[in-house]
Amino acid sequence: MTTQSTNVPSRWQRFLNSDFIYFFKKDKVAMASFAAFMVFVVMALLAPMLAPTNPYDLTSIDIMDSELPPSWMEFGDERFLLGTDNQGRDILSTIMYGLRISLAIGLFAVALQLVIGIVVGLCAGYFGGRIDSFLMRIADVQLSFSTMMVAIIVSAIFKASFGSDFYSQYAIVMLVVIIGIAEWPQYARTVRASVLAEKKKEYVEASRVMGLKSLRIMFRHILPNCLSPILVISTVQVANAIMSEAALSFLGLGMPVDQPSLGSLISIGFNYIFSGSWWITAFPGIILVALVLVINLLGDWLRDVFNPKVYKG
């Protein structure tokens, strides 16, 4: 008995020996994308320690250092590797702090989408009938509007109702709510389709015969079997949320200029790009494109891994 118990692999060992890790090690694009994504995450989390300056600290900013080119160019300053913006802030530092805001908005917005979409999708697929029709009609109405249209309308209403100062103070929370509300139908429709397939299986019928409550069957038994498509959608939705935040900030409806996100940095620099200060927009734009690209590549890989027609164990 003792010998058998000691030979049982741990949960972590089973994960390392799973097909998921096996296919991940075989795919160099997935490994490179994940490594690049982790670099972005580390830059964001450790921005206070890694960034040369703090863009929120007004005492460390000198307006005389505004619009300095990258250090390798003529008139560049070695203190500012990627140059400075119109306020004299170090571009590299603002990018690191901007990554924190963009990633936070993307992840929390997707978390809100998950909660709303999973609850709606589970209820619609499991109960069916009028509940299904009512919830799906709401989702159809939501999908009839583009994400940016919903986000622009809601953010404009928030600004008009509570004022620009209130919006600036709670800009991150506002953007999370706006983007989360705009994108939840994607999850609801996907979860509903998975639930319709799962609820016909024998384990669901057995759970009903045992007298288990509907909520327990939905969340403890059906939902775990629907996680594969949810995980794939989530990676794509994180990229979409980051792009939505960047677009709203560029239009002046997102993060304020004194709280740098990748979108607000691009918006600030766009006003100066024709005067020759291209680096204010170029470097945040490159980082934004690279971040969205690696997330989408990871999403494509996950979609293929969870598709048995593509990867066969």
From TrEMBL:
Residues 99-299 form the ABC transmembrane type-1 domain. One of its GO terms (cellular component) is plasma membrane. InterPro entries: BP-dependent_transpt_permease, MetI-like, MetI-like_sf, OppC_N. It comes from the Bacteria. It is found in: Cell membrane. GO terms for biological process: transmembrane transport. It is a multi-pass membrane protein. It holds the Pfam family OppC_N. Gene3D superfamilies: MetI-like. The chain crosses the membrane at residues 29-51, 101-129, 141-160, 166-184, 222-243, 278-299. PROSITE patterns: ABC_TM1 (PS50928). Keywords: Cell membrane, Membrane, Transmembrane, Transmembrane helix, Transport. Belongs to the binding-protein-dependent transport system permease family. This is ABC transporter permease.
